[in-house]
């Protein structure tokens, strides 16, 4: 579909995005190009870019309320995991970072529990927003995950819990904080600690052992900020949440290929259930990294 055709049928971005900061109505215009150029530069340098005040100020209370209302639907089960989300019994040599076991206490609300009328669902399915995200990552196009559970989800981290060090299965990650923690809940990451060609296990092991502090960057996004991140190659975590409020963040999952569905084992861990789509799916990776 042409840019003009997309704009004609997709007004979601105009309604939801703060046009004073992000005038995205013209994908071929100079304002769009300036934002994309700036975002790509940050991603190239730091592996992460936060676009502050992405959602209109008048909608931020609604954004928080909508997500808080569905947060009790999250699948909550504390898991013992490693940074690669591979089976804990996988044979690995001594000193391998995959042998470091951590507690994952965050929970996920699956896509089939998220109302289609909600802000995060409307943004996730917007063709213009998808085109913008693809452009920021210098990709020709993006597709919504065909996965009925993990395509769009809400990450809920209750007080006393954390999302430990890990790598993402996707090369790129798109998220939006919808409610901050009262204290803690800081996003920490090690940009480009590995590449598609090199695992750099020694560097990963140093961070997991608390010796790699010089590699760690910290971010504290605000509700309505859009975060773009190269999570496949950057080890990252959310520190322990403290206070009375859980931390909520929407995860927008896209793929460069259509029809992508999550693996059965990872889906069972995250959502506590499987659908027929998962039993028939094969995990697809664009590299040979451990995971």
Question: Number of helical runs?
Answer: 9
**Coarse morphology:** globular
**CATH topology (level 3) name:** Jelly Rolls
**Main beta sheet:** 6 strands, antiparallel
Going across the major beta sheet, what is the strand order? 1-12-8-15-6-4
Radius of gyration: 18 Å
Q: Mean of the pLDDT scores?
A: 90
Low-confidence runs (pLDDT<50, min 5 residues)?
A: 1-9
Number of strands: 16
Q: How many separate domains make up the residues?
A: 1
Helix content range: 25-40%
CATH first level: Mainly Beta
What is the CATH architecture term? Answer: Sandwich
Report the portion of residues in β strands. 15-25%
Structural class: alpha+beta
Order of helices and strands: HHHEHEEEHHEEEEEEHEEEEEEHH
How would you characterize this protein structure?
- Strands 1-12-8-15-6-4 form a 6-stranded antiparallel beta sheet. The chain has a 4-stranded antiparallel beta sheet with strand order 7-13-10-11, with no helix packed on it.
- The protein starts with a helix and ends in a 12-residue tail after the last helix.
- The chain has helices at 3-9, 12-16, 30-46, 60-70, 119-124, 127-136, 201-208, 264-271, 276-279; strands at residues 48-51, 79-81, 102-104, 107-109, 143-144, 152-157, 163-166, 173-179, 183-184, 187-190, 217-219, 226-229, 235-238, 241-242, 247-252, 254-255.
- It is built from 9 helices and 16 strands.
- The protein has a single domain (3-279), classed as q2cbj1_9rhob like domain (Jelly Rolls, Sandwich), CATH 2.60.120.
- With 291 residues, it is an alpha+beta fold.
- 26% of the residues lie in helices and 20% in strands.
